[in-house]
Design a protein that fits this description.
The chain is an alpha/beta fold. 34% of the residues lie in helices and 20% in strands. Strands 4-3-2-5-10-17-16 form a seven-stranded mixed sheet, with helices on both faces. Strands 1, 6, 7, 8 and 9 form a five-stranded antiparallel sheet that branches. It has a three-stranded antiparallel sheet with strand order 13-12-14. The structure holds S-adenosylmethionine (SAM).
Length: 447
């Protein structure tokens, strides 16, 4: 068969026919991250999966105010770190780079001193050199150039999983080395929910795992339909996962299903390995283990998205639809504790954005850009301003919606911060130290 005729369905079917049933995590890894045909590689056709013309939108699509708020938090982190002459923002899973754009806009317009210190690194598993990644790099590059961002201050790196050993030779630099010791923040939005998950089910007090296999009568053709099959846990890590997080799953009724992401903890360790001093900000849907893995949520949280519709069949159309599951933030906190990244705060996106002042900023934007909304309602201009202000308010409401984006969680972790009694702007009462509160000689700004 010619390489160009290969489809992801066929590739997965061949792997199953050759090696036997695969875990759902393996299926998801191929469906989302096969280097050419995977969903996040452009599905073999360079298609952009994100945004209004893609399959789903993220906070960055709703309004630039979201990026403004994150930028404000990053700016305060720089101040808490003592305004170092270099401050690195590393964004794994940067997608189209929409957050980078807003962070730069904020820095240039509101905090020029910070802008001179700022270096922004984007990584993503859309492979370097692929049509999808090249298009993203071109678009972001053009927008940043127009804003006057120095070209050397922003760079794209390969995500470790797609970084070949000869990445340097291909002109794609590898991730920064730990000994370089970054000072700054590792920030991600909706990355962890896109990591492959195992699917499990409780029956009779035992934990089973769902595998992906081929319908038996079609196996010979290598082109059969992919179906689920129950089996024992694929590894001790799966078998003991819920016990690690004290989830009382044995008391749950038969048929209780859930997802287990074994990649989240290694991801956190790897993504933060180079961070010498600073913060990790992880934004996503999910919750602590005990609130995520409840008896009531018996169907799990796996979701499938295509063209802004929620689907129910994760095994169909591999590479052409998104697959995602809620994040167990307890796992990220545990992984952080183990590598010297204690939690500085955990809150909802709504709370985070409100504390950072999105409402006030939206009101300021409205007064500046849509002044006729109140004063000239009887004119065309007044009507237009009124409608635009309504759209702005609707966008803010969408970002704050407790049943939607506002219900996302924000986890802040920190490393190497001196003293105590310091707080992040976006998280109420978040002590940036595990030590008892003591007076500190440390300069405080914005607190
Ligand atoms: C749901 S999208 C979110 C994109 C963007 N952060 C946004 O909010 O619009 C998840 C992104 O994470 C990327 N990704 C997944 N695993 C990754 C990893 N280990 N390192 C870097 N990026 C990763 C995917 O390629 C995908 O573009």
């Amino acid at each position: 068969m010619e390489a160009e005729e290969m489809t992801l369905e066929r590739l997965i079917a061949e792997e199953v026919a050759r090696a036997g049933p695969i875990t759902f995590a393996r299926f998801m890894a191929l469906a989302l991250y096969h280097p050419t045909l995977g969903y996040y590689a452009g599905g073999g056709v360079g298609r952009e999966p994100l945004g209004w013309s893609g399959d789903y939108f993220t906070s960055a699509d709703v309004h630039p105010l979201w990026g403004w708020a994150i930028a404000r938090q990053l700016h305060q982190m720089w101040e808490l770190l003592g305004c170092p002459t270099r401050f690195d923002v590393v964004e794994p899973g940067a997608g189209r780079g929409l957050l980078a754009l807003e962070v730069w806009r904020y820095a240039l317009e509101r905090a020029p001193e910070w802008a001179t210190a700022l270096r922004y690194t984007l990584t993503d598993r859309a492979p370097a050199g692929s049509p999808l990644r090249s298009a993203r790099e071109r678009r972001l590059g053009a927008a940043l150039a127009q804003m006057g961002v120095p070209t050397t201050a922003t760079r794209w790196l390969n995500a470790p999983a797609d970084a070949p050993s000869d990445a340097g030779a291909q002109g794609a630099p590898a991730a920064p080395a730990a000994e370089d010791g970054l000072v700054g923040c590792v920030v991600s939005n909706e990355l962890v929910d896109a990591l492959p998950v195992h699917r499990v089910e409780a029956r009779g007090g035992e934990l089973y795992e769902w595998y992906v296999t081929l319908e038996t009568h079609r196996e010979e053709a290598h082109g059969g339909r992919l179906v689920e099959q129950l089996g024992p846990p694929s590894s001790p890590a799966v078998a003991t996962y819920f016990d690690r997080f004290r989830v009382p799953w044995r008391t749950y009724p038969d048929g209780w299903r859930a997802e287990i992401c074994l990649e989240a903890e290694p991801w956190l360790r790897q993504a933060t390995a180079a961070l010498r001093r600073g913060f990790v900000l992880t934004i996503d849907y999910g919750d602590t283990a005990r609130r995520l893995y409840t008896r009531d949520r018996h169907g799990g949280t796996l979701m499938v998205y295509a063209r802004h519709q929620v689907g129910e069949r994760p095994l169909v159309y591999p590479g052409r639809q998104d697959i995602t599951a809620h994040v167990n933030f307890s796992a990220l906190r545990a992984a952080g504790r183990a590598v010297g990244l204690p939690t500085a705060g955990f809150t909802t996106q709504a709370d985070f954005l409100l504390r950072l002042g999105v409402r006030e900023e939206a009101a300021a934007i409205a007064a500046r850009r849509f002044p006729a909304a109140d004063t000239e309602r009887h004119t065309d201009r007044g009507q237009a301003d009124y409608l635009r202000r309504g759209a702005l308010r609707a966008a803010v409401a969408t970002l704050l919606d407790p049943h939607g984006l506002g219900g996302f969680r924000v986890l802040a972790q920190h490393r190497g911060m001196p003293g105590a009694g310091h707080h992040l702007l976006g998280i109420a009462g978040a002590e940036i130290s595990t030590r008892p509160r003591t007076p500190s000689p440390w300069p405080l700004r914005h607190v």
